[in-house]
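Board notes (copied after class):
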Amino acid sequence: MVGKSLIFAISLAAGLASGLSTPQAQQTVRVSEITRTQLFAPLYVAMAKDFFGQEGLKIDLSSANGGDRVGALILSGGADIGLTGPEVPIYIFNSESPDKPIIFSGMIGTDGFFLVSRKQIDNFDWKMLDGKKLFGLRRGSTPQMFFEHLMKKNGVGQATIDNMVTNVALPAREAAWLTGDADFAIFHEPVATKLERAKQLFVIDSIGKQVGRVENTVFFAKKSWLEKNAEIAQKFTNAIARAQDWMKSAMDDQIVDAIAPYFPGVPKEDNLGPIKRMRSSGAPIFSADPVLDKAALTKMQAIMVESGIMPADKVIAFEAIVAPSFGDKAKAAVAK
């Protein structure tokens, strides 16, 4: 009897144990971002709040320091998902690459750069840039195109636009500003806040506020990867949507606390300043959800044509380069 009871007890325990939930193995997704910036707060929030983990994903995040480098990693298979301006997948789509990129999630609703000045200006007018020394970004990059678009719109001469410095890589721009003699520049965060606190520049306008709603930073992948990993892409987009939803009601301090691990050694005020500036800029910088806006992408491509970066006959139909179902489903899932 004792033997049978023991066997029964062991069997019962084994049965109970088998019924307990066990941690599911997480699938690793390699993500390459163009740079590390508070502008990408929704991505870091999704990681910090374990929204990816709850979807069964583990994120391997790397910073490429350049949109062209992100594109190269995606094409070579060095990364699964790229986070850049939409111009990168558009350039690749128009190239001879047989495996076309597909944009499947939005995150940033307009430009996150700010126009800065060497001197304080109380009554700024964009015409003040005409004839001045300007410090821009790489030609063809999203921030540079928006910068040029606004200058043309506000009557700045083409000679001024053509003569601006645009050949300094992202990691070297801070030092170049400090050692250079440019009068105006565009900077993203955290550099803008850091140099402002050091009294090395004055932030005078939001590029995003002046440009308005336009797809600015998107997640994309090769078509072949997306077809094989549609479920992973959906889970990924779900996590981004949850982070965006969380940020809507979060206080600035809460967002800063969440993203702090992704800015090691950065003082809290250097994270807080950028978050406050972007959220209070009057620009739709942080998208409310990952749904990609057709009109906003159309506007983006119109600016690319205006900049001379892309011929008009190379404009890509929204339906060809965007897979909107991922954002739509993620938005619906969060709303439940």
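Comment from the instructor: The longest helix spans residues 230-249. Confidence is low (pLDDT under 50) at residues 1-22.
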